[in-house]
Amino acid sequence: MRFLKICLLLLFPVAVTAAESGFPLYEMEPDLRDQPSLQRGARTFMNYCIGCHTLKYQRYKRTAEDLGIPVSLMMEHLVFDPNAKIGDLIVNPLSDDNAKSWFGAIPPDLTLYTRLKGSPDFLYTYLLTFYEDTSRPFGANNLVYENVGMPHALLELQGVQQLKECMDVSRLNPNGSQMRDPVTFEFLTDKVCGDELQKSGISPFELVQGSGSLSEDEYQELVYDLTNFLYYMGDPGQLDRERIGRWVLLFLAFFFVPAYLLSREYKKAMH
Ligand code: HEC
Fold first, then answer.
1. Domains in the chain: how many in total?
2. Which of 1, 52, 192, 197 has the fewest CB atoms within 10 Å, measured from its CB?
3. Residue 36 domain boundaries
4. Which residue has the higher pLDDT, 49 or 201?
5. How many Å apart are CA 168 and CA 149, to the nearest integer?
6. Residue 16 has what pLDDT?
7. Smallest Cα–Cα separation from 37: which of 224, 238, 214, 215?
8. Is residue 82 part of a domain?
């Protein structure tokens, strides 16, 4: 077993660590062509994350260009550091020492985060699985990052999410019908608790109604856009490659015509 785990770790280091909490990750399909989504994601990042996390391998200017944001709007609405210039890297003044004493951990730079994790799924799930836990210093815990040092930065938007108590969940036959006790004929159930509920297709969370300013769907969309933006950050060249790729294909399509005619001429000359 141990040997198998080491082999797996060597082959798929990311997949294995991401799945370590045991909670199945929600899937997230990024869409870099959706510019409004990337712009909304940038706005959320600059409003709720930049105070603690940097994007220090990227400049404001490149971000504005790629996302189709005019420089003046970018400076006015998305760059909150009064000393920052459009050509600067996206950093913040939080020192490692302060972060360590305030949060017990240093907030990592997020430029390459989704690439480090191998997919945007972990980030997407992480932002959807904060829940209330009064035993934690900031009153929040996370299903895919146990005992996380980060406070729930989007709490005012999402509202208070609580883990459900244990529930009785029907035991199912392989064909999906409910299983009965062979003697009493009563339906059989299992007690399922916390994150285990997700495996039975039941959300493990309950939202305290009215505690957040967004509806559940709106919050999910906001997290989608933010994840989409951070996915773009991990590989901003992807947009260029697609654009150039299209021209290359177009060029090849046109080039095919003279190349074909030329080859026909050569063949004629040979015979
Ligand atoms: C008040 C400071 C603070 C804010 C605001 C904040 N974070 Fe964090 N974040 C942290 C700290 C501290 C950690 C490290 C937690 C740990 O390692 O226990 C962290 C960890 C993370 C991680 C996990 C990193 C890992 O090691 O895998 C992600 C992802 C993340 N933050 C994303 C975000 C996003 C996205 C936002 C904006 C919505 C945000 N954070 C806002 C402080 C913050």
1. 1
2. 1
3. 22-124+215-247
4. 49
5. 32
6. 42
7. 224
8. yes
Q: What is the pLDDT of residue 10?
A: 53
Is residue 87 included in any domain, yes or no? Answer: yes
- How many angstroms separate the CA atoms of 129 and 23, rounded? 10
Contacts of residue 21, Cβ cutoff 8 Å, sequence gap at least 6:
143, 144, 145, 146, 195
Assess if residue 224 is contained within a domain.
yes
Q: How far apart are CA 84 and CA 91, in angstroms?
A: 9
For residue 17, pLDDT beyond 50: no
**Which residues have CB under 6 Å of ligand 1?**
48-49, 51-53, 99, 103, 105, 107-108, 113, 123, 126, 145, 148-151, 153-154, 226
| Mean pLDDT (whole number) for 178-202 | 87
Out of 47, 53, 101, mutate this one to test ligand 1's pocket (max ligand atoms within 8 Å of CB): namely 53
Q: Provide the pLDDT for residue 7.
A: 54
For the stretch 229-259, pLDDT in tens is: 999 999 999 888 888 999 999 999 999 999 9
CATH number for the domain that contains residue 103: 1.10.760.10
